[in-house]
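cron nightly-structures :: item 1 of 1
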Amino acid sequence: MPHPLPDEATRRRLVTRLLEHYAQHGRDLPWRHGSDPYPIWVAEIMLQQTGVWTVLPYYERFLERFPTVAQLAEAPLEAVLSLWQGLGYYRRASHLHAAAQRVMREHQGRFPDTFDALKQLPGIGESTAGAILAIAHGQHHAILDGNVKRVLARLLALEIPTDSTPGKKRLWECARLLTPRDQAGHYAQAIMDLGATICKPTRPLCHACPWNEGCAACKNGHPEAHPVPKPRAPKPRKYQFQTLVVRPEGRVLMLPKAAGGLLGGLWHPPGDEPGPSASPPNAEAVQAHLKERFGIAVELPIRLPEVEHTFTHFHLTVFPFLGAWLSGEPPVETGYRWFDWREDTALPIATLHRKVLKRLS
């Protein structure tokens, strides 16, 4: 059975101790220096599935290039994706860009300050909307990001997975009960800090935790047993080939991916889509594919060492080929470019495809 939720007196003590701890030990982060919702929103999106110390340099560069929502909305998506290179989960960047355009188009450039309107923007769910409104406007909204789920699962010694339907219901109930009406923004940042710096996934610092006396997992001596993991099927493995078509001066053919799908809006070498076949094509088939699909003639391609990459939902093996260009250009509608892979760092290219390009080194 799940541990019972804290009673009102216990909740008040927990909140008071957490806020006192935050006042003394809260992290000095750039998005905490004001109440403008725009930089808070950018930070919250970047922090989804990414740690603070990884995010900081990206955040600073992003706000320097796009200091207002209007400038973000006016920028081409390619410029936004270029700044995002290396941060991963590129759909977040596409959502930021799309949301900024909707703010300009539907809200006259003013960031929405109501929960329902904020949740209508791309990439903003219940927890992100709550965090933005609590931190920027002091509104009474609970949050439940990954760190907070872990903290509350340990506080309750929750015996069901946090990502299950009953687990999420239980945690949201607890999050709402604990969030104080008058200091929701400080509380949101305090509990995120608690999960990031003390109630860590492994080796939590229970001795330094302001909640250790009320934490059921700490009391039972097994904090790392929580959250209870949800049984997961092993990730499938997929395969694809990609061809590095190289002109005599060294430039490489690159194509843009359509927005919306896997790595949408980013650039990649020509090839096929990830699939189940573990057998690489032969060189003649790759040569024919380039001729038929793109009107390009290459010398018989040379197979290069495989590239391994892992996405959230599957492992990928890429079979790279090197094809020396002889003649022809792709159709204009493909939007292709001949890319100087040694010098051009502005073209938005995913880590996967940079791994493939390194096979030219």
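cron nightly-structures :: done
DSSP finds 14 helices and eight strands in the chain.
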